[in-house]
Design goal:
Radius of gyration: 17 Å
CATH class: Alpha Beta
Bound molecules: 3-phosphoglyceric acid
Oligomer: single chain
Largest sheet: 6 strands, parallel
Number of domains: 1
Shape: globular
Number of helices: 14
């Protein structure tokens, strides 16, 4: 993961460039938000060489690891509970303008499936995940709506297996060594570490990494991650990305605070760049 993030294989397709101001699908070449990310983004991609930058091509035929690499690429995955589908596009716009075109839409609201469907249709540059996937029904709704990956707070083997059947890259939640071993046995290499801060935060992940790092497991700590501790998480070799709600809180969406969301994305990416050197 790290090698790829550092541009070793140039996997970042042009269609995933941190976009400039404008619509979520803007093709404008704006000034870089973070020079390192920008440099990566301009590398020619396998996808480009295969001739596709469009919505369908983005998803079809991509191995799970690639989709999850894309989700983790920016270092931060905004976790969003959204009550009204009307907020979907302004949210996407704020994320893309802020240089963070990735989102986890949680199944904590009735609007989740509709929001995912809208984003999948209108915002081909956004990496759209479904979060809080607790049931097979959530999983099927996520897949049908166009989510390209799914996340859960816990590890339910039935859900992991069903996700595999559906071809939906899945990130289960773990909290203990036993959870990690079960996740690995089920073929999951990227695991949400949740709730990260309450479980011991950075020192807990360091301790867990000792016996498991060699397996290739990577964590996405979520729960209590914020701009004050983000860097310390991302400095860990086993942390692929962090997740959190601080970028776009439920109330921010209700109040239409798009500029603030955009600014939080920019600030978060600066911290990511610092942490990753
Ligand atoms: C999640 O489901 O990932 C958490 O609710 C996020 O936790 P946070 O609100 O502390 O970021």
């Amino acid at each position: 993961m790290r090698g790829r993030e550092r541009g070793g294989d140039g996997f970042v397709p042009a269609s995933w460039q941190p976009a400039g101001r404008g619509s979520p699908d803007s093709k404008s070449g704006s000034p870089p938000l973070a020079p390192r990310l920008h440099k990566l983004a301009w590398k020619k991609s396998r996808l480009d060489s295969e001739g596709g930058t469009g919505k369908r091509f983005r998803i079809i035929g991509m191995p799970h690891e690639s989709v999850l690499d894309r989700a983790a690429h920016y270092g931060v995955v905004p976790v969003v509970a959204i009550d009204h589908a009307e907020a979907a596009l302004p949210l996407a716009n704020a994320l893309v303008e802020g240089g963070l075109p990735v989102v986890e839409i949680t199944f904590r609201t009735a609007a989740a499936a509709e929001v995912i469907r809208t984003l999948a249709r209108e915002c081909p540059r956004l990496v759209i995940g479904a979060g809080t996937v607790l049931t097979p029904a959530n999983l099927e709704a996520a897949k049908d709506s166009g989510a390209t990956f799914a996340v859960a707070p816990g590890l339910n083997p039935d859900i992991v297996k069903r996700a595999r059947q559906l071809g939906l890259p899945f990130v289960p939640g773990v909290a203990t060594p036993s959870d990690i071993e079960l996740g690995l046995a089920l073929g999951c290499k990227l695991l949400k570490f949740f709730p990260a801060q309450a479980l011991g935060g950075v020192s807990m992940i360091e301790a867990l990494s000792a016996p498991y790092q060699h397996t290739g497991v990577r964590f996405m700590p979520t729960g209590g991650v914020n701009p004050d501790n983000l860097e310390s998480y991302l400095k860990l070799e086993t942390v692929a990305a962090v997740g959190g709600t601080w970028i776009a809180k439920r109330q921010d969406l209700m109040d239409g605070r798009w500029e603030e969301i955009r600014n939080r994305c920019v600030a978060a990416l600066e911290l990511v760049a610092k942490a990753r050197g």
